[in-house]
Amino acid sequence: MASITIRNLDDEVKELLRRLAAENDRSMEEQARVMIRAAVDGQIGPGRIDQIEKTLRELTSVHGAATPAGAPAGKTFPRGALSGRRILLIIGGGIAAYKALDLIRRLRERGAAVRVVMTAAAQEFVTTLSVGALSADHVFTELFDRKDEHDVGHIRLSREADLLVVAPATADLMAKLANGHANDLASTLLIATDKPVLMAPAMNPRMWAHPATRRNRATLQKDGIAFVGPARGEMAESNEAGEGRMAEPLEIVAAIEAQLDVSPKPLSGRKIIVTSGPTHEPIDPVRYIANRSSGKQGHAIAAALARLGADVRLVSGPVSIADPTGVKTIHVERAQEMRDAVEQLLPADAAVFVAAVADWRTENSAGEKIKKVAVEGPPVLRMVENPDILAGVGHHRQRPTLVVGFAAETQDLLHNAEAKLRKKGADFIVANDVSQGSGVGPSGVMGGDRNRVRIVSKAGVEEWPEMGKDEVAARLAALIAERLKTIVV
Ligand code: CTP
Prior knowledge:
Layout: H1 11-23, H2 28-40, H3 49-59, E1 86-91, H4 97-109, E2 113-118, H5 128-135, E3 139-140, H6 154-159, E4 163-169, H7 171-179, H8 185-192, E5 197-201, H9 205-209, H10 211-222, E6 226-227, E7 231-234, E8 241-245, H11 249-260, E9 271-276, E10 281-284, E11 287-289, H12 296-307, E12 311-316, E13 328-331, H13 335-345, E14 350-353, E15 360-362, E16 383-385, H14 389-394, E17 402-409, H15 413-424, E18 428-433, E19 450-451, E20 453-457, E21 460-463, E22 467-468, H16 469-486
Parallel strand pairs: 1-2, 1-4, 2-3, 4-5, 5-6, 9-12, 9-14, 12-13, 14-17, 17-18
Antiparallel strand pairs: 7-8, 10-11, 15-16, 18-20, 19-22, 20-21
Helix pairs in contact: 1-2, 4-5, 4-11, 7-10, 12-16
The chain binds cytidine-5'-triphosphate.
Pathway: Cofactor biosynthesis; coenzyme A biosynthesis; CoA from (R)-pantothenate: step 2/5; Cofactor biosynthesis; coenzyme A biosynthesis; CoA from (R)-pantothenate: step 3/5
InterPro entries: Arc_rbn_hlx_hlx, CoaB-like_sf, CoaBC, DNA/pantothenate-metab_flavo_C, FitA-like_RHH, Flavin_trans-like, Flavoprotein, Ribbon_hlx_hlx
GO biological process, one term: pantothenate catabolic process
């Protein structure tokens, strides 16, 4: 989508737009969009097409992004990940305001339209002139500016954006929003908006550590405000160091991209089942048989698949970690419950079995707590085999297109993984060595944060280097997306 720069228009067109916008209670930009739409739809007679075409050329550049004021004629900005996204950037008053200039450039390079609001204090650090030149738009500074030809009203200003970004977010701006103050343009916009808000705090480490700032941050987070930074390091204004440096412009851009969720969605429309965590097999109402699985790897895979757009159903055994965002989680305890939950979720496009399912359960778990009876000695537990959930789905009449299993082995890794691939009807097995000497971190794979896996399929074995469980998850999700794309059913 193109950005529209009203200030680049000639006076006559500007005057016409202003009049029509006022008559229709629209912003000038909105009026321009309506007129362009009407022209495209053929609602404007042929006599005026030349004028409209000229206007369109003035309004937009060839590649759809606005040309900044003062930039050489014909210079255009490339389409990027943020193409067509509208960012309202609020610059607070702090030495880090100079980094906001680079942030504007980085955002525009990626195709975003950036509209800027500066607080009075921000103008002590950077000028509206330089900000306006970089954003190629009017810079808004006053709450009530009746004379301002660009005045679009604070409600509209905050709502015509996809995201509000506060950088630098000063202690004062955070305090104002946390407490609902609206006594200047920036604070009014923040409270008037219905769009997400991202803050990049920057302040002296003592200010950041102050209980009042901590309280305000907690309140803002509870209210759904996202944060990026601050980082630890040298402060620009003094010899102090500590936590309080504003995140670097590219980190803020990454946070903006994450907020706007501009990543590709190759798995959209795909339903994927993931099992994760251990199972608990009861002995009696208070005792159970468990294993060391934390659920970290399975949950990370569910989250990674969801990030690629999949409709993920996570069937999780008892874990102490949170449900991943963007995923529908079903909580179960026992292997039989996990099997039932998985089978009820069929059909699906893919299923990934990460859970460390208990292979056995007690034949009859006691209805009452088993008491210590001295004459009888310790109870004898008779075990029976649990259903193999992966094998059941791998040979199911509603078998998903892609079935992925895991193999946790302490010996003969590849041999065992290949045997499981065949026996369980999987397309590939993610094999990991869970032996004490696996060399993965001090706590090992189970419960730890790192993993080293091999992907075993009919095509052979692919070895991945040791990496964090999140990275294993991201790579596996990408591999699943790739495989689903190429498999034609
Ligand atoms: N699995 C399952 N249901 C079970 C046992 C295992 O779905 N009852 C799945 C696991 O989620 C994993 C794969 O099967 O994807 C292999 O699990 P693993 O514990 O390594 O193998 P087992 O089949 O249990 O064999 P063994 O314990 O003898 O190695």
